[in-house]
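Bench notes, bay 3.
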Amino acid sequence: MIDDSKPIFLQIAELIENDIISGVLAEESQVPSTNEFAAFYRINPATAAKGINRLVDEGLLYKKRGIGMFVVQGAPEKLRQQRREHFANQFIAPLKAEAAKLGINEDELLAMIKANSPT
């Protein structure tokens, strides 16, 4: 799962985010420790900590002193909203801009999307 496409700490953060969104990590559940991530992915514990701390800084995880990191109440919905915004900015806006260049109106674009959707 870890590759060279982006920094490892970002990949660790994304793995945790994906587990939160999918429900593998429920609200108030404990996240694997930095040492567990480090051992499993054969990375430096500081790298794993950087990914986890990023999620703490974003308000998605919190620390229980001496116990570990836990998922914040409301984290799944917060992540979904962030990802929806990212999706709109990264995919929908450019799609609409290209459609406009090609003279494709919204109705035609919606029809094209529906025609190419998995059933």
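Next record in the batch:
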Amino acid sequence: MSCSESLVTPVEKTRQQLLYLIYGNQDVYRREAKFSILTALSHGKAGTMPSIRILTDRPEDYAGWPVETVFLSEETLTLWQGRNGYHHRRKACAIAEGLKYAQKTLFVDTDTLFICDPSQIFQRIQPGQYLMDRFEYNWQDVYDRQDYVRLGRCLSAHGIDRQNGFKLYNSGLCGVTDQDSPLFDESIKLIDEWTRGGFDIHTIEQIALSFAMCGKPVTEAKKYVYHYFAEKRFFHAMQAYFFSQHGEAFSQELVELCRDVPRSKPFPSAWHRLKIKWKLRNQRGPLRKVGRDLLYGSAAPADPYYDVCRHEWWECASREILRWDKTRQKKLLNTHHHWPEQLPKPQKTEDERVIMKYLKNRVLT
């Protein structure tokens, strides 16, 4: 395994830690990490809050925050990526490195919100008892998918086929102990084996870890956190607004203010969703999806954080329209009226012009 390099900033070993990995200079991921930390602190209790460690190439970004940073040099990041150019290998190396810093480690993807006291999660982590974000699917469910064929050949060398497969977990949250170094030695070895000569899927890291955990007891963490990996645009919009309003300098007030930010995607009320469903009762397929996303954005609840998400619903619609052929796109959007005749109008009359301008800019220009 090629990721055992002494890092620049040693930290004192503690009983338990939240561990983050973040590198690069993209604002969106820094905001993700900071907001995730705020949600953990907002639920944590004095005296039971775990240490928070961030492995990063930009420790200055977290000055003043109640965290310890471990500096990652460019050489370390290159080493952790490995010879095959698979950058998610760095995550496995980061967890392996983090095991040195605590008896219990909860690795946290930055796109994760805590919805309970983190100490409740650590109670589920014991030697030989692992915690992962959530169960996603069985190997037999994806065995014959085209993008899994190459991996299937690699797994067959380990005696794995459709009948004797294993459970695959999302590794957005990973709870382990300092006794689990062999688990990550095996995972990194498998990553290197399965990415040799290229790779067809980008979740090799969590598949390798799931395979290494095969037959071991694993608990899901999804009732303790919300991992919004499939809804990033909505949460990015809310987090950008939050930090634009309150700044990124840490304070206890910032912890309290984070409670005001919704922890869910901005759906309209149940009543409005029912009305929209009725309005779209005669539509089918892609046009129905486009209509739903446009109307959902218009009917978002009155909340400053939801207001900044309206365009994200409309972006969902525009991405669907961009999949259509040009003729179908123009038929929908080149209209002499403010609104396409094929679709029911939004709840707010003023949104007709705003939405159409947005769609035309995204699709027809």
